[in-house]
Amino acid sequence: MKAYEETMTALSRRIAEFSARHRYHYHCLLAAKAFVERDYQEAIKFYKVAEDLDKGKKWTEVRFYFGMGMSLSDRGYATRAIGYLRQAKYLATWSRRYNGKPNSRFDVYIDGYLAYNLSKIGKSNEALELLEKRLSIEKKKKSNNGIGYTYFSFGKVYKRIENYNKAISNYDKALKYLVEDKIRYVACVYQKSASLIANGDVHEAIECAQKGLSITSDKLWETFLSALVHSALMHNDYNSVTSLKENIIPKLQEYGQYEAAVYYYEQLSNFYYEYGEVDVAFRYGKFTLETQKQLHVELVERGV
After folding, report:
1. Which residues pair with 22 in a beta bridge?
2. pLDDT band per the 50, 70, 90 thresholds, residue 5
3. Domain total for the chain?
4. Residue 251 lies in a domain
5. Which domain holds residue 44?
């Protein structure tokens, strides 16, 4: 990462010498860096600059459309994400090209993101059909990573449509195939944990979250958040409440997850009110209103 930072710094000092095509690729790199750092709005901004530079020149590749699609997806712009992901799928599936070389595995990730966003706009049947076709292809190729990622995508779709038993079942299948892919294995662990919680299996969810925390140094804030909330609200665990308000909610806001932050601020307000700490409850009620304003801005930006 240090070498990458030094390279990008050196390039930024010579940007005046770049041709339009060099500027295009430079902004794609900046966008990819922002995406990895989870700054999805910044990633979208850089991809948009690259897109403007590319108009009429046809430089765009699978990585541009997929990167833009992922960034839009992770910011909640499902309909716009689908448009870019469909274009990425066309290039990956039909032209079979990626960075000027034949591609044989990139489309599995495109299908996963595409299916999830289709489920977000109410096209769950189309999403599941897409993943069934992908699973068949990956099984024929005997690609453990492809099979595992597709089961993971099945889990996300079923979780989205609140069929938590099927979501958990597919996450379990995915984990068997993703043991050598640490990043996606961990992601699958905390998606499974969230599904267990939504299904009412609180203790199993907390055990699952602890397993994830033992695998990686990442805080796994999404999973840990869910486990903490249920520990706090169902077991009167003040330590969990303290961690929730001091560590987890600020992280949600940092990542732009205002809808989730609003929900958990409301939970904290109710928690303190029930235990007679009215002043504290009132303070978290104010935080709820402030975060709702931020959420309103987000929804307006998305055109919702």
Report:
1. none
2. low
3. 2
4. yes
5. 1-58
Cα–Cα distances (Å) from 28 to 8, 55, 100, 113, 255, in that order, read 12, 14, 16, 19, 21
> Closest Cα to residue 174, out of 108, 218, 222, 231?
108
Last residue of a domain, one of 21, 42, 58: 58
Domain stop point among 58, 75, 100: 58
The string of DSSP codes covering 215-263 is H-SS--HHHHHHHHHHHHHHH--HHHHHHIIIIIHHHHHHTT-HHHHHH
Helical H runs in the chain? 2-13, 20-36, 40-54, 62-74, 78-90, 107-120, 124-141, 144-160, 164-177, 182-198, 202-215, 221-235, 238-243, 249-254, 258-274, 278-302
Vertex 161: Cα angle to 87 and 215 (nearest 5): 85
- Which one-letter amino acid corresponds to residue 131? L
As a whole number, the mean pLDDT across the chain is: 76
Q: How far is CA 199 from CA 101, 206, 211, 222, in A?
A: 44, 13, 19, 16
* Nearest-5° Cα angle at 43, 50 to 5: 90
Least confidently predicted of 12-16, 75-79, 82-86, 274-278: 12-16
What is the C-alpha separation between 47 and 203, in angstroms, rounded? Answer: 42
CA distance 112 to 110: 5
The predicted-structure confidence for 264-299, as pLDDT tens digits, reads as follows: 777 777 777 776 777 777 777 777 677 767 666 666
Q: How far is CA 175 from CA 111, 128, 172, 180, 192, in A?
A: 19, 19, 5, 10, 10
* Within a domain: 100: no
pLDDT digits (tens, 9 = 90+) for 128-138: 999 999 999 89
Among 15-19, 58-62, 115-119, the minimum mean pLDDT is found in 15-19
